[in-house]
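Lab notebook, bench 4. Still working through the backlog of constructs that have no structural model yet. Next entry is a single chain of 683 residues. Request: give me the structure tokens for it.
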Amino acid sequence: MSLDIFRYSRWDGTQDIFGPDAEDLLNAMSDSLMDNGNVEMALRDLMRHGMDDSLGNRMMGLQEIMESLRSRRREELDKYNLDSLMDEITEKLNQIVDTETKGINKRVEEARKQYEETVGSSEKAEDDTDNLKQLLDILSKRADNNREAIQNLPESTAGAIRELQDYEFMDSDAHKQFQDLMDMMRGRMMDNIVQDMKNQMSNMGPQDMQALGDMMDQLNDMLWDAGENSQAKFDKFMEQYGNIFGENKPENLDQLIDMLRDRMSQVQSLMNSMSPGMRNELAEIMNSAMPADLQESLEEFSSLMEQMFPGNEFRNRYPFSGQEPITYDRAMDLMNELQNMDDLERQIQNVGRRGGSIQDLDLSRIEEFLGEDVRANTEQLQQISRMLEEMGYLSNDGDLLKLTPKALRKIGLKALKDVFSKLKLNLMGQHPVYLRGRGGEYSGETKPYEFGDPFDIHLERTLSNAVMRSGGGVPVKMAPEDFEIHRTEHMARASTVLLLDQSRSMGYYGNFVAAKKVAMALASLIRIQYPRDRFYIVGFSDYAIQIEQDELTTTSWNDWVSGTNMHHAFMLSRNLLAKDKSGTKQILMITDGEPTCHIQDGRSAFRYPPSYKTIQETLKEVKRCTKDGITINTFMLEKNEYLVNFVDNMTRINKGRAFYSSPDKLGEYILVDYLTSRRSKVN
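Model written out:
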């Protein structure tokens, strides 16, 4: 004896107590199964398009998740102005120039004031005064030169910074600000290679820059010789420079290369997403911040990475269109986010193709970009197949998923429900009335007893009539007008063949799904309500073939052959119905085209437009069916001239009926006709 263990926890608002059940999932798959008959494809369709469960709750499909991801990306692109990256540098440059200008004026003013105080003092020697005058003149001349240099700086930020690198600052604060700006640009340049390296770039002296150059040279050498004693070289490199990688240190050369690739890709995407003018400006500023030998090492590194990852690896461009300014650090973080979004979108697109599985989706990224609810929704999508297997709707035969008999019954019942729901709506007040008599089956209705009726009393209605007439009390007093009896109708045993056109046109014009749904509905109706009936399904295109009911769900139309072989279909139907010696015999044919081939010498002979031979051979078989007492009712899904003429000739021979129907009304016509045809009136 096994015990089920249940664990309970406090409700925190995150638990999903409803979610889709297996029956909802199977119902959602049914239309796709009707269309293509492929379980794997139906599962992919469900995962891609999602579903609404019986309670009206929505489970997003992968397509909706992908659109949400794209919307999230568009929000970022519509928010920021990437060219504003230069604004920060330009602002710092303007501040440097302003500080330097004020500093020049202050120094000159202080020197002039000191000179004037000296001249005004009788205690100061003449020599001191002359010296101060010379110093003031020299300072004023230098100030004039510096003011001219400051005022004539190039308009471009990159050009101005290049000029200031050779400029002798007169104000120490301005000089410090400029050095900080250069440190920032050098940090960003190195941060393009290793994230967070910018924090180590402040106040770097010549020795520090030399050490940085040595590191880049070793890195380049290691990339050149990747694969040859790579682990030993990597270990030596990390022993010396591992601190620059922070907490996320790579463990081998491959991890290091992947890290470098990702970072370079982010940088290149950032540069590619800027306008050409701003991109050139920023690149010139960064390059000018580096010593020539270090700049050469960086260029070599970029070339090596391009060789290792050719093509479009570093070519992503994002069309920013917003107005909000953005900092460089935020821009780099955003490039990482955008590329992760791209990777996630590719994962979603690859589900069901290229070997991609829904189990491969990165749930942490889905939660990061779209929230906890979408992550929970995705986890439900991942569990669809398992839920259907656990409920006994799917079986796994090796690598092949198959519908179980339980699932087939459920799909048939859904088809029946769908058809009858329309039937009830459209036939309200138009139900046929049949004569009732002795020896029939109960119809579910009653009638007042009349002389000559079998005394098959309906006790509840009779007693109810007596109480309503005479009031309460015991004993209940009966009167002749109180008696009601069961209505009955004689239900003849019926043998039916449903001819299902599987020709190419049925699929191309969207008629096959409706026809197959009707076939499944009829099969379910007969199994549940008329178990004594015989029901056969015959599919036909260039040849006719019997379709077992458990094969119907996976049956599809033939898109690789031409031909509508009604001749063979009637021949096979007649042979099947010959097994039944009594009862109603009928053929229900659903088609959208005229006969275009017939059996000749055991093979299918095709011709379009239909040949005289095909028409004659098909009508001969109709005559044989008529002789055997088989009624043929035809449901036409098209009204072309050839089909109408043929069906007109066929109905004159067989005395059956012909209907023109649209796919959405097909089930109503066929079910009404089936129920009508199998009843016989009894006096």
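Notes after review: Residues 1-6, 422-440 have pLDDT under 50 and may be disordered. Residues 22-78+340-403 form one domain. Flag for follow-up if needed.
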